[in-house]
């Protein structure tokens, strides 16, 4: 049997005009700004009209630590939204926007898969409504204003050796990680070491996603620390008078993007901070608006629950005042066998021994969600044709020992119909009265202790090895008044530890924090572990090699 590719499925589906999708969720046409027939921005002033309306139920979709076998988190999120709509629940989906870097690099796209996709998937995966380009422009405007200030006399006394603000581009390009610029004479600026981040790792992206309105966003932009003076004082974007122009570039990007699923469920796709570097969640604006419009809102956090769900709860929920009603933890038999030591070539064969060895990774995530964060959870097994009944039964038995039911998800092949069992369990959980939601640490806890708490309570580690530079910077940040900010861990997504080779549920490890930095505008302190890159590179065979467009403008190769 030959399966259609994701893009073939998407292109063979007849979409409804986005105005009809808006009608189904009660969005008045006066708040729509159309980008063609099938996508629109929703003016944030709609929130003022909806402010007295009761919020719907917020469902978080997270996963085990990712592997090359894949988990299908976005696919499950979309299919669950479709399934809840099929069961008569007024539902919206809230997702992140894909970055061009991963689209042309490894992933090839990030709009779901099979019969559980958000569409138009080509637009969503490419330029979409231009939000990420606007973020890049605002980021680079600030970079230009920093160097221009130094060129014209440097009244603030900025030390060119201690500029922390980088330029950005939304593409994987390792060549730009470390550069020297301002060369060839005085007229071309001050020579200095510089570099690029990928746009979705920019603090401006995090700020857009954590802003509640225009004024809140301007305040956050004003607070960005871009570097330090010769006498060790922080320099902000506000001191450079950059926040107004940056906000002007971002005013439309702040408006959530409305699209639809293949089954015409309304979806906001808005914002896309990296999850192993930044907080990895879609925008507060989109989530809060969706909660006012729907009875159920399905959203996802990046990568596994150790990264995505922890940051969703401890950063996004803390800043926005959100409270999830239930959590879905996505896993596959194949990925769990990989965590248990099976190679990628062996994953199709039944292997109960490898599966049992890999299961502790899933069980750790269940424990984190249900015990540490106090939230009801269900495990969604994204089913593959090679999964055997014995393997599925083993997962179900182990999960129930940890107090989490298991539901099979077949949304890739069947769309919303394949997610109805999962949807029924989600509904049951939201009505179960077992929600004891809490953060993993309080605001007043010192930065060092916050990092240690995350490592011990969420990752299961023995502690933290802080490099001297990290300890020195923590002391300095607390003296500058940043001690009450939440912590954003920059860590590999592939392991609960900071070593991507330690799969499953490693024990007896410590996490090495090599440095910390403040994202004062976004409102968190970043702890840098391992070899995390803020500018990825392309793989040996990038997905870009397979992407093409024909004479009719029809794109192929996205998946």
Care to give the gist of this entry?
With 559 residues, the chain is of the alpha/beta class. 35% of the residues lie in helices and 19% in strands.
Fold and architecture overview:
Helices cover 35% and strands 19% of the residues. It has 559 residues and is of the alpha/beta class. Strands 1, 2, 3, 4, 5, 6, 14, 15, 16, 17, 18 and 19 form a 12-stranded mixed beta sheet that branches. α9 (214-222) crosses α10 (243-250). The longest helix has 21 residues, at 131-151. The model has no long low-confidence stretch (mean pLDDT 94).
Show the helix and strand layout.
Elements: H1 6-11, H2 18-25, E1 32-34, E2 40-42, H3 46-50, E3 57-63, H4 73-86, E4 91-95, H5 100-104, E5 112-113, E6 116-119, H6 121-125, H7 131-151, E7 158-163, E8 167-169, E9 179-181, E10 192-194, E11 196-198, H8 203-209, H9 214-222, E12 225-229, E13 234-236, H10 243-250, E14 257-261, E15 266-269, H11 284-293, E16 296-300, H12 305-320, E17 326-331, H13 333-339, H14 352-372, E18 377-382, H15 389-401, E19 405-409, H16 411-414, H17 420-430, H18 447-459, E20 463-466, H19 468-479, E21 487-490, E22 510-519, E23 524-529, E24 548-549, E25 555-556
Parallel strand pairs: 3-16, 3-17, 4-15, 4-16, 8-11, 17-18, 18-19, 20-22, 21-23
Antiparallel strand pairs: 1-2, 2-14, 5-6, 6-14, 7-12, 9-10, 12-13, 14-15, 22-23, 24-25
């Amino acid at each position: 049997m030959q399966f259609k590719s994701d893009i073939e499925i998407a292109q063979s589906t007849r979409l409804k005009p986005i105005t009809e999708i808006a009608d189904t969720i009660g969005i008045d046409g006066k708040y729509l700004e159309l980008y063609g027939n099938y996508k629109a921005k929703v003016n944030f002033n709609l929130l003022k009209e909806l402010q007295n309306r009761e919020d719907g139920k917020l469902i978080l979709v997270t996963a085990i630590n990712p592997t090359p076998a894949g988990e299908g988190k976005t696919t499950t999120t979309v299919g669950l939204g479709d399934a809840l709509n099929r069961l008569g629940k007024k539902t919206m989906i809230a997702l992140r926007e894909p970055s061009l870097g991963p689209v042309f690099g490894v992933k090839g796209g990030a709009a779901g898969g099979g019969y559980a996709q958000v569409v138009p998937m080509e637009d969503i995966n490419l330029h979409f409504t231009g939000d990420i380009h606007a973020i890049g422009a605002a980021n680079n405007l600030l970079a230009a204003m920093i160097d221009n200030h130094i060129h014209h006399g440097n009244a603030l006394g900025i030390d060119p050796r201690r500029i922390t603000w980088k330029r950005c581009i939304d593409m994987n390009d390792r060549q730009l990680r470390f550069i020297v610029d301002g060369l060839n004479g005085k007229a071309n600026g001050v020579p200095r070491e510089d570099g690029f981040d990928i746009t979705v790792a920019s603090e401006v992206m995090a700020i857009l996603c954590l802003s509640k309105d225009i004024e809140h966003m301007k305040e956050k932009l004003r607070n960005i620390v871009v570097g330090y003076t010769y006498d060790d004082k922080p320099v902000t974007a506000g001191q450079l008078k950059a926040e107004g122009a940056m906000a002007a570039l971002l005013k439309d990007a702040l408006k959530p993007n409305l699209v639809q699923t293949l089954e015409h469920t309304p979806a906001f796709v808005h914002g896309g901070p990296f999850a192993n570097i930044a907080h990895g969640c879609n925008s507060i604006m989109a989530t809060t608006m969706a909660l006012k419009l729907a009875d159920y809102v399905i959203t996802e956090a990046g990568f596994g629950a150790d990264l995505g769900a922890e940051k969703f709860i401890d950063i996004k929920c803390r800043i926005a005042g959100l409270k999830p009603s239930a959590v879905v933890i996505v896993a596959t038999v194949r990925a769990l066998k990989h965590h248990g030591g099976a190679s990628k070539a062996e994953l199709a064969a039944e292997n109960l021994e490898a599966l049992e060895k890999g299961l502790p990774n899933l069980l750790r995530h269940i424990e984190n969600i249900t015990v540490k964060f106090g939230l009801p959870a269900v495990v969604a097994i994204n089913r593959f044709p090679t999964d055997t009944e014995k393997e599925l039964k083993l997962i179900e038995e182990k999960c129930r020992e940890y107090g989490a039911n298991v539901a099979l998800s077949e949304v890739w092949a069947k769309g919303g119909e394949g997610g109805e069992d999962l949807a029924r369990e989600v509904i049951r959980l939201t009505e179960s009265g077992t929600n004891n939601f809490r953060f993993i640490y309080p605001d007043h806890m010192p930065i060092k202790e916050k990092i240690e708490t995350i490592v011990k309570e969420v990752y299961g580690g023995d502690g933290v090895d802080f490099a001297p530079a990290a300890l020195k910077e923590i002391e300095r940040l607390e003296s500058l008044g940043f001690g009450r900010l939440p912590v954003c861990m920059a860590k590999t997504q592939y392991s609960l530890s900071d070593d991507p080779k330690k799969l499953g549920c490693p024990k007896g490890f410590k996490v090495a924090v090599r440095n910390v930095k403040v994202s004062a505008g976004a409102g968190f302190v970043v702890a840098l572990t391992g070899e995390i890159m803020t500018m990825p590179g392309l793989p040996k065979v990038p997905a870009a090699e397979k992407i093409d467009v024909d004479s009719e403008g029809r794109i192929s190769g996205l998946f």
